[in-house]
Amino acid sequence: MSAVPVPLLEARCVAKRYGGLAALDGCSLSLRAGEVTGLIGPNGAGKSTLLNAMTGLVRADAGTVLLDGRDVTALPAHRFAALGVARTFQIVRELGSLTVFENLLLAPRRQSGEGVAASLFARRKWWAQESVNAEKAKALLERVGLFRLADQPSGGLSGGQKKLLDLARALLLEPKLILLDEPGAGVAPPLKIELIRLVRELKAEGVSFGLVEHDMHLVGELCDHVHVMAEGRLLVSGTFEEVARDRRVVDAYLGVAA
Ligand SMILES: Nc1ncnc2c1ncn2[C@@H]1O[C@H](COP(=O)(O)OP(=O)(O)OP(=O)(O)O)[C@@H](O)[C@H]1O
User: Fold this and answer.
1) Which CATH superfamily is domain 9-95+162-254 in?
2) Which residues line ligand 1 (CB under 6 A)?
3) Which end of the chain has fewer surrounding CB within 10 Å, N or C?
4) pLDDT digits (tens, 9 = 90+) for 44-53
5) Beta strand 62-67 with 177-181: parallel, antiparallel or unpaired?
C-alpha cells in the first residue's frame, strides 16, 4: 500500500474571529505539491483570511497550519519566504514613483545581507548579492513581458501589468509555492491569457500554486483541485467540473444556507 503524501500546505480547524464575526470557523483544507489549487467561494467566505492565516499575516485564534508537515502556525510572515512560500495580494502594493525595475528590486528576498551591515565582508557579500538580484530581476521582467517597461514609473502600469510585476516579485524568491490572491481581478483579457500561460509554465517547472479567485474561467483553466469555502469553512472540494455542478456550491453563491 502506498503512503498518502504529506500535503504541501495544510490548515487544520483554523478559526479567526473579528469581534462577533467568525471569519474562519474551524476551516480545514490542504494544497498538494505539484498542483494548482483554487480557493473559491462567495464574498466574505473567509478565503483571504485563510490565505493570511496560512502565511503568518493573520494570527489564528485556534487551529494549526502545517507546511510540509511542519507546524508553522505561529511563524511570522517574513519567515515564509525562506521556507519557499511567496504570495501576491488582491491590491498590488507598488511604489508608483519608483520604476518597474526598482520595485522588483525592493522585493523581500532570501539573501545573506539582510540586517547585516556591520563588517566589510558582509557589505561586500551584500553588493555581490545585489548584482545577482539585478540580473535575476532583469530575467524575470523578460519572463513576465515587462522588460520594455523596466525604466517606466510603475504607477503608470495597467492593472494586469501590476499583477505581473507582483508575480515577478514573488518569483524572485525562487519559491516552491506561490499563493495568489485574486490574480485575475482588474486584469484585461490579453494579460489574463499571459497569466494563464505563465502559471502553467511554472507549474511544469515544479512550482505549486494556491489561488483565491472569483474569475471562474481562470479557475477552470488553471486549477487541478478546487476548494469551495462558505461562512468560514470548507464546503466542497473536487475538480472544477465537480464543484461547479454541486448544488451546495450553487446555493452558497446564491446566499442559501448549505
Ligand atoms: N481585519 C478585519 N477586521 C474585521 N473584519 C474582517 C477583517 N478581515 C476580514 N474581515 C471579515 O471577515 C470576513 C471574511 O473576509 P475575507 O476577506 O477573508 O473573505 P473573502 O472570502 O476573501 O472575501 P472576498 O472574496 O470578498 O475577498 C468578512 O466578513 C470580512 O468583512
Assistant:
1) P-loop containing nucleotide triphosphate hydrolases (3.40.50.300)
2) 18, 21, 23, 41, 43-49
3) N
4) 999 999 999 9
5) unpaired
